[in-house]
Amino acid sequence: MNIKNYINGKFVNPIQNQWIDNYNPSVGEVYGQIPNSTQEDVEKAYQSAKEAFPAWSNTTLAERSKILSNIARLIEQKLAILAEAEAKDNGKPLSLAKAIDIPRASSNFQFFADAITQFSSEAHESVGLGAMNFTLRQPIGVVGCISPWNLPLYLFTWKIAPAIAAGNCVVAKPSEVTPMTAYLLGEICNEAGLPKGVLNIVHGLGTTTGQAIVEHPNIKAISFTGGTKTGAHIARVAAPMFKKLSLELGGKNPNIIFADCNYEDMLATTVRSSFANQGQICLCGSRIFVEQSIYEKFKKDFVQKVSELKIGNPFEVDTNIGALVSKQHLEKVKSYIDIVEQEGGKILQGGNKVEVKGSEKGYYLQPTVIEVKSNQCKLNQEEIFGPVVTIMPFTSEEEVLAMANDVTYGLSSTLWTNNLQRTMRMSKNLHTGIVWVNTWLLRDLRTPFGGQKASGVGREGGFEALRFFTEPKNVCIKYE
Ligand code: NAD
Hints:
This protein is 40% helix and 24% strand. By secondary structure, the chain is of the alpha/beta class. The chain has two domains: 5-249 and 455-478, Aldehyde Dehydrogenase, Chain A, domain 1 (3-Layer(aba) Sandwich); 254-444, 3-Layer(aba) Sandwich (Aldehyde Dehydrogenase, Chain A, domain 2). It has a seven-stranded mixed beta sheet with strand order 14-17-18-13-12-20-21, sandwiched between helices. It has a six-stranded mixed beta sheet with strand order 9-8-7-10-11-23, with helices on both faces. A hairpin with a 4-residue loop joins strand 3 (19-24) and strand 4 (29-35). Helix 2 packs antiparallel against helix 4. The longest helix is centred in the first third of the chain and has 25 residues, at 94-118. The radius of gyration is 23 Å and the shape is globular. Bound molecules: nicotinamide-adenine-dinucleotide (NAD). The site of nicotinamide-adenine-dinucleotide has 32 residues, from helix 7 and helix 8. Belongs to the aldehyde dehydrogenase family.
C-alpha cells in the first residue's frame, strides 16, 4: 500500500522518489510505504496553495461553510473505513477510533463550518475625534499545519478545518508514524467539492518535510502539535521570519483527588484518564495525587480495576488497551519503567511487555501503576506518554497545589472534589491551560484549548482558532 502526496487535488509520488516504511504496530510489521517528501515537494504544494488562495479567500462564507459540512458528512459516512485505517496505523482499539477519533474529525469540520458564519470583528468609534475604526480580519495566505501520531485524524483536522474556514490555503503534514487517514482525507476533500490546491498534504519525516514547511519563507503561519522539544526547535526556526506560531506541546498533567469526591465516578474516570489510547493523549492525568485519608482504599481499588483491563489486538471488540504506536516509542516508555527503583518508586501493577496471542511481534505493554515518594523524581517530571501513571498521597490543599504546579509543563489538570470554595481556589491557582473538575476530557469545541509553560503558546478552539488563522487590520476612517 503506497501512500501518495495530495497536491493540487491530485495524488502524486514524491519528486525524489524517497520512501519510508509504514508499520502496523499491532502486529509489528511493515504494511506500506509513504513518501519522504523533500523541499521540492513542499514547494510544489506551496505553489498549488498560492494559486488557489485568491479564489478561495474570496469564496462566500456560505459556500465555504457548505464545503466544510460536506467534508464532515463524508467523514461520518466513511466512519467504518477510517476507523479501521486509524486502528491499523496507530494500534489504538478500533472501538476507540469509532467512538472518539473519527466522529471528532467530522465534528471539527462541522464546528468550523458553522463557526465561520458567526465570526465577526470589532468596531471602535473614536468619539470626539470624528473617526471610526473597524477591524478587518483577513486570511493570512498559505499556512502550515503539522500534527502528531496519537490522535491522527482528530488533531490533523482540528487545524485544517479552521485554517480553510477562515479562507487560507494549507500545506499540511501528518505524522510519518500514522499517515493513513490523512491520505484518505484527500479523497474526501475532492468528493466534497473542495477546490484543488486549498488543502495540500505532504508526507514525510519531521526533519525533512516538516522542516521544509517551517523554513518556507512564504508559509506565513505554522500551527503545530507535538513534542515540546520539536516545538522549541520550530520556534527557533520560525522566529527570525516573524511567522505566526501556535504551539500545542507536551504535558505532565496532575489528577488531584480529594476525599470528598464522588468516589465511584472518580475511580472509573481515573482509569480512563490514565490509560485511554494507551496513555498516549497529551491530556492524560499521569501524576495522580490522592488525599491521605482515602489513599490506601484508592490504591487497592485502582490497582484492581487496572488489572482487569484487557490488553489485546485493536480489532478485538473487548480490547481496552491496544498496541503502542511504534517499537521506538515502546522502548522509550519501557526505559522509564526500568528506572523505577532507582527513582525511589515501586511498581504496584503492570510494568511488563505483553505477547498478544496471534500478534506476538506487536508493541504491547501492560498498563502500569507506580507508587512514588516524591514529585521530584523523573517519573513525575518527564513526559512518558504511555500507559504509565504514578500515584502518591498528599495531606493538604497547599501541598498538592505546590506539587501540581512544580513541573515544567502546564497543559491540563483534573480536580476531584465537591467543595466549592476549594474548586474556585484551585482553579485559579493551577498553572494549566485547562482545569477539569469532576470530569476529564469533556470538550466543548468553543472553548480555548492549549497549554501554559512548556506545554505551548497560543490557543486553539472556537474563535481563538479563527483569530489565529486571520490577520487583524485596523481601518481608521475620519468622517469629520
Ligand atoms: P513530535 O514532536 O515528534 O512530532 C510531531 C510532528 O512534528 C510530526 O508530524 C513530526 O514529523 C513533526 N516534526 C518533527 N520534527 C520536525 C521539525 N524539525 N520541523 C517540523 N516538523 C517536525 O511529536 P510526536 O511524537 O508525534 O507526538 C507526541 C507529542 O505530542 C507528545 O509530547 C504529546 O504530548 C504532544 N501532543 C500535544 C498535544 C496538545 O494538544 N498539546 C496533543 C497531542 C500530542
